[in-house]
Amino acid sequence: MRKNQAALIFFLAGAILWVGLTSWQSHRKTRTLEKTSAESVAPSAPSAPASASSTPINATSANSNPTDMSAGISGAELEFKMPDRETYRIQVLEREKQEGAGLPPVLREFSVRMAELMEKASQSPVFAAALFDRLKECSVAKRGETIHQARTICAVNAIRLGEIHPQTLGSKATSFREALPARLKTSVAALGF
Amino acid sequence: MTKQYRSLIALLGILGTMASISPLALGVTIGVENTPPPPQSAPAIRYDTVRLPPGVQALITSDLNTLSALQFGPKVDNHFKLLFHGTTAQDIIRYLLERVHYVGVVSVMPDQSQMDPTTYAENFSPYSLPFYFQATVLGNRKAIPQVVDFDHTQVVITSPRVGFIGMGGAYVDPKTTQMDRLDTWVHEARHSDCARIPSFGDLEMIDRGDYGHVSIGGLSCTYMHYPCPKGHPLAGELACDVVPWGAYSVGFVFSRNVLRACTNCTEKQKQEALASATEDYSRLAPNVRAYLNTQSPPPPEMGSVDAKKVHF
């Protein structure tokens, strides 16, 4: 009886040890894979691993085709509403009636969304690549669609992404800045970019 | 308790006391209320404790504490150095304290009993110019200056450097961003500057309220705004700057440096600063924008970047 009890205890201890070791090894394997994938995308971004793993993209596709890094990121994640020209005009006139007026709400809301997106992009080169393309589109939005301030914000943030992720977006951002329309280029340069 | 522990606790106590008595933590003090402080007077702000709701003073103190904690790195630009005479947040604080002495209210009520809910903030300095014209230039002994109820006394606006900022309810709108409020402080403080006395003709026009025809030199006293041009969303409104280093330029330089050179700002703060900077930039005339695209100051005839001088 005592022998049986000892065997049972020995068996249970072994089983616990086995389960523990297996799960530790599996966890370690996943972490290594994530690290390798993120490092290969952005070797200069130490904070990249955790975020890269949270974006729906596998390591192979990111490695094999760096220009298609945005694959797997949904449109909703990158969505932002461009400030409408007419709404801005009405709000800025209303604000002007207030002494020392601050930002019109439509521009303030735009900056709030930009902060969310840029925070996410600073953590993930994959997300940054997708956002970069979206910002490029926004910076050349038609005059009737939005305001110059919004286009400037988009252009500046696209260039900043190139500074945050120089390995993956540096040269793209430089080319983008060089190709900006003259008026936008001047506004961006005035902001120090 | 060992000797070392006691020394450590004593040291922490001293540090704590030093931190708690910093001017920003206290939030102010200066002497005589209805006598304008001399230029470059004691660096302190006095709040109207009678009319200002308690939340407003607390918010301003919190905003200024946030400002003083900002750290600027090597990307600080030349315009920042020229305007704030340094490269740190403390230099901006000094700039503010030299120009803002009283924080009161803007009210629609005759007894100023309530803050105007639609107003954000207003520097009363430009009100000193018609009085200067009437009293000093024309020698009119019956000229009456702008008098504002403040605390249990009054403040008389006889010089731009009186530095009276009236606050409105819109400042405390919870949707207003902190960087927008800080940009506003830097902006409003600039209206306390007077680079030169306006000419007789300019003073006449200012006295009549005809700001649209005042020369650039005349506008540089209190850095008054100018009607926005045709095609601008604010066409015809006194909401643009044609003088370099005016209030919108200073706000722009501040926000640009928060975006570009602040090393401990959050992304949220940087985006708020970016939005404020683009809005400030939209209020600048092309000649002013051209100066902000270089790192050089504009020629002296275009105004003075260092406008500490007050001539009256």
Description:
- The complex is a heterodimer of chains A (193) and B (312).
- Helices cover 72% and strands 0% of the residues of chain A.
- Chain A has 193 residues and is mostly helical.
- Chain B has 312 residues and is α/β, with parallel strands linked by helices.
- In chain B, a hairpin with a 2-residue loop joins β4 and β5.
- Chains A and B meet through α4, α5, α7 and α9 of A and β3, α7, α10 and α11 of B.
Distance between the termini of chain A: 81 Å
What pattern of helices and strands is seen along the backbone of chain B?
HHEHHHEEHEEEHHHEEHHH
Major beta sheet, strand line-up of chain B? 1-2-6-3
What radius of gyration of chain B results from the CA coordinates? 20 Å
Pair with the most extensive interface?
A-B, 38 and 45 residues
Average pLDDT rating of chain B: 83
Radius of gyration of chain A, CA atoms, in whole angstroms: 25 Å
- How many β-strands of chain A, per DSSP? 0
Percent of residues in helices of chain B = 40-55%
Number of helical regions of chain B: 12
Percent of sequence in beta strands of chain A: under 5%
- Total number of strands of chain B: 8
Question: What separation lies between the terminal Cα atoms of chain B?
Answer: 62 Å
Average predicted local confidence, pLDDT of chain A: 75
Main β-sheet description of chain A: none
